[in-house]
Amino acid sequence: VHQSKMDFFCKLGYSKEDICKVLENLGQEALEDDVLKELIRMGSKPQALESQAQPSQLKLVARGSCSTTPGLKWLGEDESDSSDSLRPIVIDGSNVAMSHGNKEVFSCWGIQLAVDWFRERGHTYIKVFVPLWRKEPPRQDSPIADQHILGELEKQSVLVYTPSRKVKGKRVVCYDDRYIVKVAYEKDGVIVSNDHYRDLQNENPEWKWFIEQRLLMYSFVCNRFMPPDDPLGRHGPTLSNFLSKKPVLPERKWQPCPYGKKCTYGNKCKFYHPERQHQAQLSVADELRAKTKVLSALGKEEERCRCS
């Protein structure tokens, strides 16, 4: 009987020491319910419950505490959470490098500046497309600056070389713009370039709409990569909404009327009038029409009274 009770409570997860203590206190003939109540009263917990409770306690430790281990992930936190709301970025490497090099030098440092700018914003999917022949030693007619940056970005799986080869001494180069637009279209991302890709717009109507709506232009100001705050114009979305999959609509702010109380537009005025919140807003013409109707109605009543 003693051994059967030991096996039963060991299967529940209780330690043998706690079970022996309870059986010594209650006796060998104690019922299983009484033994279980005594184990609970002593504060003994099954090992399975203790193992489940330990990681939950570690997850609830405040951030920045020294007791946390680097291998643990926080509850509800995922590596892809920050990038789920941001669009993939596809960079036209040749366009960016030549723009940074003032259209004279293929400056690889300009590509690095653009990649760093998007990384600081939290974008994780960043691809740069550059022709394969840029990997060759520079020539006088095509100088390259900071060529080692291309190798570093390639190791980071950021830079992609578009294929090219030599046939009878002549270089055969694939159209890298087609790679850029195709990958950005499939990923539903953003194209970073100052090129308009007019030939590709005429080739595919779907690409035409995509290039018009997802092309992000830029400028370099003192080695600083600067895209515009309004990529689609003054009345378009902001840069943060343009780069995010879930844009946040700003609250509508009414601009006060520059004429103030002297405004004669009435309800047709598109500006905000704080003094007209609780009264009917009529234009001057509508007010005159209303007055003439009242006067004409009063005149008719007077004539009726005279006739009677």
From TrEMBL:
InterPro entries: Rege-1_UBA-like (IPR040546), RNase_Zc3h12_NYN (IPR021869), ZC3H12/N4BP1_RNase_Reg (IPR051101), Znf_CCCH (IPR000571). A zinc finger (C3H1-type) spans 251-276. Keywords: Endonuclease, Hydrolase, Magnesium, Metal-binding, Nuclease, Zinc, Zinc-finger. Pfam families: RNase_Zc3h12a (PF11977), UBA_6 (PF18039). The keyword Hydrolase applies. Its cofactor is Mg(2+). PROSITE patterns: ZF_C3H1. GO terms for cellular component: cytoplasmic ribonucleoprotein granule; nucleus. Residues 251-276 form the C3H1-type domain. One of its GO terms (molecular function) is mRNA binding. The keyword Nuclease applies. Belongs to the ZC3H12 family. This is ZC12D ribonuclease. The gene is Zc3h12d.
